[in-house]
Design goal:
Ribosomal Protein L13p, Chain: A; Ribosomal_uL13; mRNA binding; structural constituent of ribosome; four-stranded parallel sheet; alpha/beta
Amino acid sequence: MINNKNKTYIDNINKNQINNQWYIIDANNQNLGRLSSKVAYILRGKANNNYTPHLNNKINIIIINSKLIQITGKKREQKEYKRHSGKPGSLKVETFSKLQERMPNRILEKSIKGMLPKNILGRQLFKQLKIYSNNIHPHSSQKPILLKLH
């Protein structure tokens, strides 16, 4: 007798059955890590009841006011962001506060990208994320739904 208790069955969902969904999230006074994990969860499609791990659920997220993101403790001065061009001696190190002045979107991009899968699907999902440093965005014709994350 075969034991079928430990199997998970996934309904066959066509890519044509999935509709584009647009959400808008305000990052004003939100905690960086908590916001990033919730955005990655929604972007992946896990909040939907027809979640399929290997399919792109066509969820687009717009994040506004990224320059007003909050972090706790002394991370504003102590957290470092590193990048390297590949040439010897070209390691660039920047603190959170300096990167937030120069490119406030990069902080959220790096945080959310690290929480997505490291494969083709993760790269597709990351392209569906739009981040803006203030509250002006060019996606009003998509009629995004406002999500309040607490």
